[in-house]
Specification:
By secondary structure, the chain is mainly α. Helix content is 67%, strand content 1%. The protein is globular.
Amino acid sequence: MNPELVQHNLDVVWTLVAAILVFMMQAGFALVETGFTRAKNAANIMMKNLMDFAAGSLAFYVLGAALMFGASAASGWFGWGGLGMPGLAEGEGSWNWTFLFFQTMFAATAATIVSGAVAERIEFKSYLIYSVLVSAVVYPVSGHWMWGSLAGGDSQGWLEALGFHDFAGSAVVHSVGGWIALAGALALGPRIGKYRHDGKANPIPGHSLVLGTLGVFLLWIGWFGFNPGSYTAGVASVGRVAMTTNLAACAGTVAALVTAWIIMGKPDLTMALNGSLAGLVAITAPCDLVTANAAIAIGLVAGIIVVLSVFALDRLRIDDPVGAVSVHCVNGVWGTLAVGLFAAPVSAGYGNDAPGLLYGGGARLLGVQALGAFCTAVWAFACGAAIFFALKKLGILRVSAKTELKGLDLVEHGQDAYASFQFFSNT
């Protein structure tokens, strides 16, 4: 048998399996967001997670893929490959089908991050509009800057050309989603009753920590498609990336638990769960370039800053029901910068020709990573603010106070997520 054909088929199968694992993260996000919010909005949140994937996938196929992976234009600021990206669809056995499927899963992840930050108060139709615009334009344009060359050298983005590195998406996916989430939370304002007149936050506990915990475990599993899968090849290095991913997640969990325990006086489950996700987000960019010990250090920092960020946002009266900004925005930036600090040298069997600052490298890689983090922040936040404040100007962004108090399930969807449970409990 032709060894090249065997390797090609192995690459296809592994990449498809990894993409399916990434798709499973949609279920994880849905459960985390539903569990961390109130029962009266459970169906609404499930519907948002369903539709941002469905509508977003169509938008990415029709327009987004062309902007992200088409031939570079305007010195690498965006690509263009034609509506429906016909170049990717050539040949029934083409690798491009696998590549497009894998990348669609990543686009869907970026879009769904925002759902938790705007939960319990955004109009459903506005969320649909947002999902389409982000998947069709916002995510693909910045994605081209950093990942365009994955489709070939003629698609190289301008940040890639400078040496920017983001292996699996701390900046490309998580920072973009996190900065848009911050814009959405600011445009919507806090939920009714979240903050007192003295500025202190009232806790609004989620209705099911069981669902939230299960969601985090599903996301954790899905990340083994997210990070090792980003090789898009059945190579030995996937095992090392799986290990650095897991170590960072575990370190983030422990660090968040300890930090919250010190501050709150109790070992808080929700903080520990967000610590797991923070470690996963932070390791996503540098997972292929760092040692196991560095992965632990990255996760420890992530777990500390996610807790501090949650408290800081509350002090600023920015209502983020599930901690999406703290997990994805703050730690997306941290993970992007961690590349410039911890990238191990080639001589140690890791990295590239520009090791991180802590391994004797110069400041150039850290500078390029900082530039990428800054440009991602400006682009994603500006686009998110433009979308959400335009919807607000049109009067369709936030539900009425009456709807918010009654619950979005009954008013927006005419459904109750737990109707059958209530029926049986009353009989």
